[in-house]
Amino acid sequence: MTAPTRHPAPTQAQIRAAWEALAPAFDRRITPRSLLFADEILSGVRVGPGTRLLDVAAGSGALALPAARRGAQVVAVDLAPTMVDRLVQRAHDGGLTETEIRALVMDGERLELDDDTFDVCVSLNGVSLFPGLHSGLTEMARVTRSGGTVLVAAFGLPQHVEFIGWTIGALKAAVPGFVPLPADPPPLPFRLADPDRFAAELRDAGLRAVAVRKATVDMSFASAAELLDTLRGSNPIGAAWLADLTESQAAEVRQILDGMLRERSGGGPGAVLHARLNIGTGVVP
């Protein structure tokens, strides 16, 4: 693995294909974990019976489903059809009807929705990944009524998202020449890691009463294999890191991570890791 080179921005088709490929693993590993801290994220807004809520880049429903269970009338959109299919299946399995939650394939940078439609618009590690972050945020604001709230949750710095930071450390140790994430500009999953920049982006989208709070969530891993499978399903960047490993490198990375997990847990095979989230909110004028 050599130093990264700059490539043209991916096309929408390429982005859709990347998330389509990840959707099964994302639904298996990421959504169940995210559902565990959805209430922490949604505590920043009022969501209850009658709330009209839009979840942008919803994945397979980590915020949309809990909001619907609170009584909100939810619309969830995602660019990847398989993500939408998985969300629909989760809603069906949970006894939610299409009246309570609708899931649509849609580009979050160009929402095919009317102005001033929703009371609350949310996104968890979704809009923050858009090549056009400003477009995504302004679209969220556009479809939210005056006085309504936009909420965006995004990862903090990689070293504060331990399942990512630990893997970077293991890759550095196991793979000669491995170059981790660039710092300037940061990769998409971490460009809202700086709370000041996060707040500025929300204000630039036309929001007022902007606030960014930090939350730390726990993520339990039974083994290095589970940790790596989670990373592989979380984002195209992590999937690419692991796809490039030789068999011996992969074994060494697992060995290093298993040792780190045992050290954290005091000798057991699994451990609880922590992840920092920045949760930004703003009100539509």
From TrEMBL:
One Gene Ontology biological process: methylation
Residues of the Methyltransferase type domain: 54-151
Lineage: Bacteria, Bacillati, Actinomycetota, Actinomycetes, Kitasatosporales
Protein species of origin: Streptomyces pactum
Protein's name according to its UniProt entry: SAM-dependent methyltransferase
Keyword ATP-binding set for record: no
Keywords on record: Methyltransferase, Transferase
GO molecular function, one term: S-adenosylmethionine-dependent methyltransferase activity
Top-rank taxon, per record: Bacteria
SUPFAM superfamilies, sorted: S-adenosyl-L-methionine-dependent methyltransferases (SSF53335)
CDD domains in UniProt: AdoMet_MTases
Pfam families: Methyltransf_11
